Structures are given as C-alpha cells and as structure tokens.
Task: structure prediction
Amino acid sequence: MIIGEVKPTAIINLAGLASIKATRGHVTSAVIINPNNSLAYLQLFDVSSLSAITLGTTIPNAVIPLTASGAGNATGLTVAQIDSGWFFANGIMAACTTTSNGSTTVAIPVNGTLGIE
Result:
C-alpha cells in the first residue's frame, strides 16, 4: 500500500483510452459527470501503457458505473468513495464505455476527478 497525500487528478473529455498515471498508484475516490443519457462505465486498468489494453478483450481491474444524466439525476453526477482504495502496481489507465467490459466508447466524453495517492 502506498501511503501519502491524495492528489486530485483531472479526467477531461474521457471517451476512449487515456493514461491517468504511468506508475503505480492508489485510487481512493472518483467524482465524475456523465453527460450521456444512458449509464456509462469508467474502466480502470493496472498497466503501464495504453498499448497493453484492447477494449472489450482486456478485463478491467476496477469498474465504476456512472449515473446517466436525465430526469432522475439531471447532472449525471457519480461520487465514489473507495474506503480502502484500489492499488494499481503498474499504472492507471482508463476508458469510458457503454458496458462494464465493452469496447464501445461513450458518445459524449465524461469529465471529473480521481483521488490518487
């Protein structure tokens, strides 16, 4: 376990694959806005480079469902506090897709912040 200061890491216009942190890290929270009118999924992978991921084939190490925008939740805001955190030994890569282990990326990119030690 990494012990240290939690630093906010912005996720800007995430739809396809993105490198969040190329070295090990500890995810402790997520605050994400999903502007799509359907459920989306933030897939997190424990790898050091994007080339190690094939969406729909590579199984994510963690998945956060993202609430849809619309009548029930007008903003599409998802807040996740991960009590003991998720440790990523190699790096933190992410994608936002329409299913929890899928390859289809969201129509409108999501934005938010991950808390990372």
The chain has a mean pLDDT of 90.
